[in-house]
UniProtKB/TrEMBL annotation:
Biological source species: Paenibacillus profundus
All copies of domain DUF4179, residue ranges: 81-165
InterPro entries: DUF4179
Protein name: DUF4179 domain-containing protein
Keywords in alphabetical order: Membrane, Transmembrane, Transmembrane helix
TM stretches of this protein: 87-108
Amino acid sequence: MNCTDFHRLMDEERPLTKRELATVEQHADSCLSCAALLESDDEANEWDIGQDMPEAALSEGFTDNVMQEILALEDASQRRRRRHKRVGLIAAGIAFTVTVGAAASPTFAEMLKSLFGYGYYVNVDHAAEMGFSERVEGSDTDQRITLSIHEILPDSPRVYVAYQIMRDGKVYEPMLQIDGKRNRLYVTDEDGNEYEVDSIGGGTSDTTISYINFKLPYGLEHKQLTLHMDILEVGGRREGVPFIEGLDKEPNPKVEGHWQVSVPFSFAKSTEATIRIPIDRSYTTPQGLSINVRNLVLTPTKTQLGLSHQLTEEAEQRKYRVKPLFWNELQKDERNMYELNQRTFMWQLVDESGAVVNDTSTSSAQLGRWPQGQKLTFRLDYEEHNELSDLSLTFRPADVRKGPVKLKAGGTEFMLSSFKLEPDLRDPSQTNAVMVIEGVMPAPLYRVAHWVLAQGSELKANFISVGTKTNEYEIREAVRNTGKIPLKYELRIKGYEAEWENEELQLLAPVITTRYYYEDDAWSFPIEVPPSSGMKQEEGK
């Protein structure tokens, strides 16, 4: 699982399956930023769709009427709000004030019957409600199993598809395994050109409907396209994914056959509704991060800022000011190099009252419907960089078992507060050690990206992921009040050996993160989205 898949699952408005929960937790064990989001996630209130829903008449003012209806429903039902937006969330319903042709748009009531509604991606739900999905019917039956496609929502370059795999009225395969060989998903245009899909994702709902989404190359926005599913096997365990007894549900047996389903679609409707607002702002931070904000793009399923950023040459060189022990060996591990090359910045969108309506560290933003005719302010909240570090802690496991052990390194005070052994759930023959580290770092030092375990001149583990026990709000307040950052990590050392118990071990932090909060010195500028009547697409974009 990568971070994109993690955020997609975290955005689901349905309960996650045991498999999905295990996958999310496994990823969070190895990714500190995702772990922080997992722990700080706010509980969401579901929208009661059983309430009475007024119907809007189909007319020239169709879209504006729908907007008013939905806003009224949201006020009445207290549509969920979140104080903290997760990285990677994308917005829904932003560009819908651009009227979609009335002849092509379903009625408001029909929208709410969309197969995409409530339980898949929130942004896709809204786009489907607004009439940007297409109801299609294509199916094929073999071995008494029917593969059928029911709905498709194209929003270049991504396509969302609702489908079913059924036998005797029951779901046989909750999620297709697309491997590009026996099970293929591809697209053709009217000239017969074939396009392979990329970045395939998917999920299931509480109904019999399954979902898949994929990315196509740019440049197909004005072509008539056909989606093809060419499937040779369904069911069975997923290849490359370990099956955990007691955690995973045994799938239906693998069945071989041949299912071919093709349905037409185009990006025309979403392309017509896409709006680009030029911004063209640039800034280089005091820490050497150059940021360029090109434009704001509003589509049926996302609101996206055109952002690019890079470090200045001086800032790039700062990453290598020190050389950790074992670095010649550690740099061969792509995970260490990946961590070293990470950099990010958090930006916010603030409304005219000063309230933050979005904060994220990617170019995509969860905004709901953009407030038409109002001003929002882009504001740089903080930036962070990773650098090499020579931070080292020496300890004996037996000492930590007896009680907390206090250590000091690099101006930071640490305490090894607990140490325990537990069996590895995925490999019962292996024992893992779980240790909790607490400490206080002077700002702008922010966190240890991961740890390394050594014994003397020998590396024992060249990448130990950490789970954080602090949250962003606590950290920010601590920096404001004390200039220091509290930290609490849980380290899971896999393959712990009994003979290490009374040996001196070293925990090394080869990569450390620095973060700079800008507060009142933040770079900012206004962004204004005109009323819908004045909106026009940029030419040639």
